[in-house]
Design goal:
Elements (H helix, E strand, L loop, with lengths): L1 E5 L6 H15 L3 E6 L13 E5 L13 H16 L3 E5 L4 H14 L5 E6 L2 H4 L8 H10 L2 E4 L2 H11 L6 E3 L27 E6 L8 H14 L2 E6 L5 H10 L6 E5 L5 H4 L4 E4 L8 H8 L4 E4 L4 H4 L6 E4 L4 H13 L1 H19 L1 H19 L12 H7 L3
Parallel strand pairs: 1-2, 1-4, 2-3, 4-5, 5-6, 6-7, 8-9, 8-11, 9-10, 11-12, 12-13
Helix pairs in contact: 2-3, 7-8, 7-12, 10-13
This protein binds ligand GMT.
The site of ligand GMT has 19 residues, from helix 1 and helix 4.
């Protein structure tokens, strides 16, 4: 098959999922074309059968807001025609599904067609999509997609409640991890030089937006370390980082809190962690929690959105009401204090992630969905090109 993938290429769960899906599809022999404004952050420079098409938003003095959605639609249309794509898979509804609809209309105008699959990730439904400025176009774009998926049951329910979405079935396909990458045993200790002897390692990974409640991470940590001496690693960056730094100073734990910034590979760090904190206000799935679990790290999180589909209370971690810093700290202390309990939880976490969210199973579900989409179009899938032919690969990258 030939699949176009559009996502936000910067740091964030939806871009990570989209990119890793594309890499896995290419490894299974499909041809994958990323169409976005920047090379996705988890996409290495060159891989067989993967192509990157940059969207160039022309600048013009009249445009205070350059119309990215239109430039994206034109690029989608161009790439579908040039490479004969079967499917355009949009990750995050706005504006990607809208641009795909425009591209498909342009194709139909020329007697051509493409199937549009939209995967809903979170705030495209729970926040942005419900903003009065965007509600109608989000609903329209979801309804005009040929197939729609959501990354959790919670998000599927939210979508139906917020948009009604008549005539569109929303299929749940959970996010996934590569168990080979997220494997505690596979990585040498990366952070031990920063961890004083005998201290536990607590970790948080996020884009540090308000929804992540990073102050609660620091507050929870301060309570835990008072009972179980620990170190906190904050991975990622975003608008709330300064607040978290300030909170650490206010609570007198700044010397035990390390801000590591944006990092491309978190698996080597997670492999050295004892506890993962994710106290988000809302989380449709919580990919970072899954990556921690797969790495054998128990997760203490808020019982928000789809997190209860990922973390098994008392088995792989603990869930507390949003903002319940005391409860999260108590749960963290209980897990860290008891070595036997920690080991059992760590093993259960890694096993459960492999049983329920392994890459192989989930990617097969997307493949089956593309098959259905192509069958519904009445066409045979387009043959992928023989590969690798180095000259062709190099010439097409970034085309
Ligand atoms: O919806 C967002 O806020 C963006 C998105 C992202 O790119 O990080 O996050 C969402 O998608 C992830 C991947 O499916 C989920 O793991 C996150 O839970 C979800 N974020 C929220 O719901 C806040």
């Amino acid at each position: 098959m030939k699949i176009g993938i559009t996502c936000y290429p910067t740091y964030g769960g939806s871009g990570a999922v989209a990119t890793e899906l594309g890499i896995a599809l290419a490894a299974r022999g499909h041809e994958v074309h990323f169409i976005t404004y920047q090379q996705p952050f988890r996409l290495p420079n060159f891989l067989p059968r993967i192509f990157f098409h940059e969207v160039d938003v022309g600048r013009y003095p009249l445009f205070e807001y350059p119309p990215y959605d239109l430039a994206l639609a034109v690029r989608m249309h161009e790439v579908v025609r040039a490479h004969g794509l079967d499917v355009l898979h949009c990750h995050y509804a706005l504006p990607h599904a809208t641009s795909a609809w425009i591209a498909r209309e342009m194709l139909r105008d020329k007697g051509d067609d493409v199937q549009v699959v939209t995967t809903l990730h979170g705030t495209d439904i729970t926040i942005v999509g419900q903003d009065p400025s965007f509600h109608a176009i989000t609903k329209f774009s979801i309804e005009r997609s040929n197939f729609v998926t959501a990354v959790s049951e919670y998000l599927r329910r939210e979508t139906l409640a917020a948009f009604g979405c008549s005539g569109c079935a929303v299929e749940v396909i959970h996010n996934f991890v590569d168990p080979v990458v997220y494997d505690r045993a596979a990585h040498p200790p990366a952070l031990s030089w920063l961890v004083p002897r005998g201290r536990k390692v607590i970790m948080h990974v996020s884009n540090m937006r308000a929804v992540k409640r990073v102050r609660d991470v620091v507050r929870t940590f301060a309570r835990v370390t008072a009972e179980v001496p620990s170190v906190l690693f904050m991975v990622g960056d975003g608008p709330e980082r300064v607040d978290a730094e300030q909170e650490a100073r206010a609570l007198g734990v700044e010397r035990q809190v390390h801000f590591l910034g944006k990092l491309e590979a978190v698996a080597p760090l997670l492999a050295g962690a004892d506890l993962f904190l994710l106290p988000s206000q809302s989380e449709s799935f919580g990919l970072s929690a899954l990556e921690a679990l797969a790495s054998g790290v128990p997760v203490v999180a808020s019982d928000a959105g789809g997190l209860s589909e990922v973390v098994r209370e008392g088995v792989t971690g603990a869930l507390c009401p949003v903002g319940d810093v005391e409860g999260m700290a108590a749960a963290g202390i209980e897990i860290l204090r008891d070595a036997e309990r920690w080991r059992a939880m760590s093993e259960a976490a890694a096993q459960d992630a492999r049983d329920r969210f392994t890459l192989e199973k989930v990617v097969a579900r997307y493949e089956a969905l593309y098959d259905r989409a192509i069958a519904a179009s009445g066409r045979a899938p387009r043959p992928t090109r023989p590969f690798p032919t180095p000259a062709e690969g190099v010439a097409t990258l970034g085309a």
